[in-house]
Amino acid sequence: ENIFDRSRMAPKTPIKNEPVDLSKQKGCTPERNAITPVKLVDRPQPDPWTPTANLKMLISAASPDMRDREKKKELFRPIENSEQSDTPDLSQYDMAEDSTVDEFEKQRPSRKQKSLGLLCQKFLARYPSYPLSTEKTTISLDEVASILGVERRRIYDIVNVLESLHLVSRVAKNQYCWHGRHNLTQTLRTLQEAGELQYGELMLLQHKEQDLEYKFGERKKDTIPDSQDGPLLDLSEPDCTSASANSRKDKSLRIMSQKFVMLFLVSKTKIVTLDIAAKILIEETQDTVDHSKFKTKVRRLYDIANVLTSLSLIKKVHVTEERGRKPAFKWIGPVEFPGKTDEPRGHSPMSDLLPGTQRGASATGKQRFTRHASFNGAQPCEGAKRKVSSEPSSPRQERQDEYCSKMINLTAVCRQEIEEDTRNPSIKSPLSLLPVPGDSDFCVNPLPQAAFPVVQADVPSLSLPNGVSSQALHPCVPAASKTENGKPALLSNQPFLCFPSSSLFMLCGGLQENTPPGMGAAGKGSTDAAGPSCGSRRSASPSTPTGHDEPPAKKPSVEQSDVPLSLVVPKKPFETPKAESTPGSGCTSAENLEAFPLDLASPVAPEAADKESTKPLDSQEQEKWSQNKDPDEPSLGKEHLSKENANQLFLPQYLYVQPAAGLSSFNFLLSANQAPGAVSLAASQLPSLSVPCVVVPSAALASFPLVCSPTVTSPLSPAPEGSFSAASSVNFSVPGLAPAAPVLIGPTAVVAPGVPAAPPEPQQPPAPALHLSPALAGPCGALKLDSPVCLGHPVTLLKLQQPSSAPLTPKSIRPARHEAFFKTPGSLGDPVTWKKNEGNQTRSVSSVQRRLEISSTSPD
DNA sequence: CGATCCCGCCACATT
DNA sequence: AATGTGGCGGGATCG
After folding, report:
1. Is A16 within 7 A of strand B by CB distance?
2. How far is A526 from A486, CA to CA, in rounded Å?
3. Which nucleotides in chain B have some atom under 7 angstroms from a protein Cβ?
4. Would you state the pLDDT for residue A141?
5. Overall pTM > 0.85
6. What Å value separates CA A103 and C1' C7?
7. Domain boundaries, chain A
8. What is the C-alpha end-to-end distance of chain A, expressed in Å?
9. Phi (first) and psi of residue A217, to 5 degrees
10. Does residue A329 surpass a pLDDT of 60?
């Protein structure tokens, strides 16, 4: 009702902002247009009394939806968009005018009408929840702001949150790409996994203390010299404050939003009180926490909560604790994500988003440059950039990591009594990794690379567990398969294991190229197997893949999952905390996510494949990535097998990559074991290159060439888009990487490919290098990679450090965490292997192995 | 009076 | 320097 008033009023208000210029708005995509026919009017200036009022009016006039909505709903509640609207408007208008006009005073729009929640609903109403894959809808901030009648600032609030869930991705300045909820499930799954890592323990405890927070020890990071992880984590966080160096921005709403969501996903009760969330999010500081800081945090949480409420993911409730009632929110979105779910990266799932925008990188917070670097690296492809001129991305990338996390205590969360609902026992399962595929084009983002680094690490750990899980999803996969005997198999199951091989595989497969990303959607996909095309991303179906969140089974599956995992799982309660400190790992969660896609994709992929294969739906997707995949493998043995496999993997196997086209001379060797990470990275990042790979059993590198198409080809270079996509994955593109990453390996354990390594900056050679051979580094960086170098080392792993990516690595960190989890007592076993530094990763591996009981020895 | 959270200043980033 | 982003918190409203 008020609304109307508003409208009328509007005219009067003086405007301040107002801006509205429609001019620019261009539009967006066709779809959009269709949807919203109107755009807006004109008029800007007016004389309105209230500032916004006029805008609103305009807006309303313009978009039917909005209006409806407004009226209808009050605030939050979900909206569906309906479109019904139109008609009414007119009438309204009229009405409005008549009546109120003067009163504006009274009526003022009431604060509620201007609430972010309502605004968000309006925003969401403008776009389809499940847009066709085919087109991408672009969103112009200016346009939307004017249409909705709000200042741009408010739109940023909404978009930032949506971006954290991958419902949109930033394409360029002032431009966002609407993805809808297709990938929401995947995103949530990823967040859940990340959340478990970070907060899992806490949750377990939850009840125990409420607030406890432990501090996680100090993060350790010690080991890691360089990188990334450390930094991220650790530092991370400061939250704000200081600003200083790290970008303050990094953290931001986006990250906060992801963390907030993570808390819900990890919580058994699915209810999180604001104060607890705020404490957790504040991370470190808690103790100290200034009251003001806390207050600010809460404020932000309200902002996020309003958006999430509009998405119908949460709802407000109150919990009564000892002290009394406290405001809280309950998760009402999907709870479980069966293993997979989507995967598909086909479309562009989140990964896209992530990478593209910012997420990817990350790395340290501080250096922003990195971004650039990354870009460079990544970019090579034109593709990437092509799209937007201004890409946004670069900059932000990093942020995420940053502070990842510190995790904290959440504990409390659960316990309280909630008013509304009770608690559910449910829960989550564990971890699976996510598969996320990346890809996609739409987003364009160049930066994918970053991500993967992390991945590896993580993956391993988790993965297995679920059988389900699998997240695999990914596309990647299989191709190669076989490389070594069994390995592949392994892959499938285990995440980790797989990597190596998988990665390779992927690469190989990829090589082929992918079709151009863009291609039509449908067409390409065709088969999986065949599919070289991987790239395409999307093939087809728009929605299918993931299946929307909704439908999916959310819960059902859930339960199952948990159990299985156990192995790896995280649970490690206390230890972890400190142990790993997790520095990095934890943090990254968000990033991870992002990262995941990339990485995961590869590694995981295998698994995914399996599942998928199983599943019907995915077929498409599968296709994509799979291209080659071998379904066979999937086998399912999953766990068991995997273990075994794993072992195998760990064994000294290495992969060799030959130089391929892209790289020129790049040769890689990966250790099978760790490689994963490495590999993955590569894959992810680089879109372009394809490299032939070979795996070498232990020693002999040379010999086998496996797979891969030697040539690469990738004419197109899908780089940009494709990169992730399955196809992409396949290829290695190294471009970016190459430089950055040094792939090389260190003789021993390397640790980390993932984790540790991450050098902060690309540019620098990573110092981290812990192991890397210096030489390599240099070259690599350059891009050029000299392969030779690498080769030299016997063992080695790869690590890529990417320049930009490097930062990314941090994400990897996560893995570390895993380690922690894993960390078993014994892990230390190999001397060599585990170095401290690497420890993390390595360790994790080891532990894993252990779990697996692997005998593996060290390479060589 | 506490819970919400709009509003918009202003710092930082990108053009 | 202009413009895009978005942290942040005062203080107005709501309940």
Report:
1. yes
2. 28
3. 3-9, 11-15
4. 87
5. no
6. 36
7. 116-211+249-331
8. 75
9. -50, -165
10. yes
CB A606 within 8 A of CB A463: no
CA to C1' distance (Å), from A656 to C6: 45
A:736-765 Cβ neighbours of strand C under 7 Å: none
A423 contact to strand B (CB, 7 A limit): no
**Per-residue confidence (pLDDT) for residue A679, from 0 to 100:** 33
**Are A468 and A561 a contacting pair, CB within 8 Å?**
yes
Name the nt closest to A368 by C-alpha to C1': B13
> Distance in angstroms, CA of A238 to C1' of C13?
32
Scan for tokens 């593709």, then name that residue.
A383
Q: What count of other Cβ atoms lies within 10 Å of the Cβ of residue A825? A: 9
Question: If phi over 0 gives left and psi between -120 and 50 gives alpha, with beta otherwise, what is residue A759?
Answer: beta
Give chain A's mean pLDDT: 43
Asked if strand C contacts A152 at the CB level, meaning under 7 A, the answer is yes
pLDDT at position A129 is: 85
Fold classification of A116-211+249-331 is Arc Repressor Mutant, subunit A (1.10.10)
What's the rounded Cα separation, in Å, for the pair A594 and A58?
38
Question: Rounded mean pLDDT of A126-135?
Answer: 81
Average pLDDT over residues A149-170: 89
Which residues have a Cβ under 8 Å from the Cβ of A658 and sit 6 or more positions away? A666, A667, A691, A692, A693, A694, A705, A710, A787
H-run or E-run covering A328: strand A325-331
Higher pLDDT, A151 or A198: A151
Contacts of A322 (CB under 8 A, 6+ apart): none
CA-to-C1' span, A153 to C6 (A): 8
* Cβ contact A247 with chain B strand, < 7 A: yes
When comparing pLDDT for A203 and A172, which is higher? A172
Spacing of A113 CA from C13 C1' in Å: 12
Winning range, highest mean pLDDT, from A46-60, A320-334, A683-697: A320-334
pLDDT tens digits for range A702-731: 333 333 332 333 333 333 333 333 333 333
Largest CA distance in chain A: 86
- Whether any strand C atom is under 7 angstroms from the Cβ of A371: the reply reads no
pLDDT tens per residue across span A584-598: 333 333 333 443 332
- Report the pLDDT value the prediction gives residue A233, as an integer from 0 to 100: 28
pLDDT value at residue A250: 59
Q: What is the pLDDT of residue A200?
A: 61
For the CA of A258 and the C1' of B7, the distance in angstroms is 25
Q: What DSSP letter does each residue of A221-249 carry, written as one string?
A: -TT--S-SHHIIIIIH---STT-SSS-HH
